[in-house]
Amino acid sequence: MDRKWNVEQVPAQPGSVAVVTGANSGVGYETALALARHGVRVVLACRNLEKAAAARSKILTACATASLETMRLDVSSLRSVREFATHLRAHYDQLNLLINNAGIMMPPYAVSEDGFESQLATNYLGHFALTGLLLPLLTATPGARVVTVSSLSYKWAGIDFDDLQAQRGYSRRKAYGQSKRACLVFAYELQRRLAAGGRTRSVAAHPGLAKTNLDQYFPALIRPLGSLFLQPASQGALPILYAALAEDLKGGEFIGPDGFQQLRGHPTRVESDDASRDERIAARLWRVSEELTGVRYLDR
């Protein structure tokens, strides 16, 4: 891109519907706010409805004409994912944007109610299931997109199919990296599967280093340093918004900041390593994800 992209360049999107997971804070909140300002009806899909209501009030203060709905979604729970998808399909006949954003970063070891390692459950498997369950709505909506939020931290780990749930030993850093690599591999593979239809696109994005509440599990002495070198969440949301709204994307791209080492800056297309695009890894991850979640997708 020759010019620095900004969301203000995007025309209004009245009549569009978006679901943003984890919309109550951080880049999720900033993404929801920007979409609402562009006339999109935004479903704030959040685990904590009180925090979702607070975010809704805050967005309405900034944009009195915003069209917003809060709905409970705990992406770490397949039961919650199914309940959310059922409710959404019953009340909406279109879905223009699905922003798979909610996540946790480097918590102590824990397993979800479904028995999955918590970071894999929250960051990846829940979004895999959600996207599959909402795919009929997405494919029925011309020009719909799925934006899956990965992270530069995908470089921290490969996908350990022999110990996917970290039962043999838990590294917070490795588990986070694996979950975010899975998100990226998923976004690419989803585009391959959607390409034949051509109506729905899958795009991956990462925010660089942005100040969000993902640092809640960092040591107390480190957290205050974040404000010194992290870009604001509003800037971190720009790659996600570009992935969602830019007209020049065909699907299958990875969007991140254009600055040094993709740490900060304006959104642009970025590259990822060969393993993230390896179709054999993608096919294996897809099979395992369908088995674990019970959600089946399109066949290639």
Keywords:
300 residues; alpha/beta; Rossmann fold; 8-stranded mixed sheet; oxidoreductase; NAD(P)-bd_dom_sf; SDR family NAD(P)-dependent oxidoreductase; oxidoreductase activity; SDR_fam
Report on the structure:
39% of the residues lie in helices and 13% in strands. With 300 residues, the chain is an alpha/beta fold. The chain has one domain (12-293): Rossmann fold, CATH 3.40.50. Helix 3 packs parallel to helix 4 (118-139), helix 4 runs parallel beside helix 5 and helix 4 (118-139) packs across helix 9.
CATH topology descriptor? Rossmann fold
Tell me about the largest β-sheet: 8 strands, mixed
The H-level CATH homologous superfamily, spelled out, is: NAD(P)-binding Rossmann-like Domain
Task: Give a count of the beta strands, DSSP E runs of length 2 or more.
Answer: 8
> How would the global form be characterised?
globular
Helical percentage:
25-40%
Number of helices: 9
Radius of gyration of CA atoms, rounded to a whole number: 18 Å
Strand order of the largest sheet: 3-2-1-4-5-6-7-8
InterPro entries: NAD(P)-bd_dom_sf, SDR_fam
Organism: Hymenobacter lapidiphilus
Keywords: Oxidoreductase
GO molecular function: oxidoreductase activity
Give the secondary structure arrangement, pairings included.
Layout lengths: L16 E5 L4 H12 L3 E6 L2 H14 L4 E6 L5 H14 L5 E4 L17 H22 L5 E5 L22 H23 L6 E5 L20 H4 L3 H4 L1 H8 L8 E4 L9 E3 L9 H15 L7
Parallel strand pairs: 1-2, 1-4, 2-3, 4-5, 5-6, 6-7
Antiparallel strand pairs: 7-8
Helix pairs in contact: 3-4, 4-5, 4-9, 5-9
GO molecular function: oxidoreductase activity
Family: Belongs to the short-chain dehydrogenases/reductases (SDR) family.
Keywords: Oxidoreductase
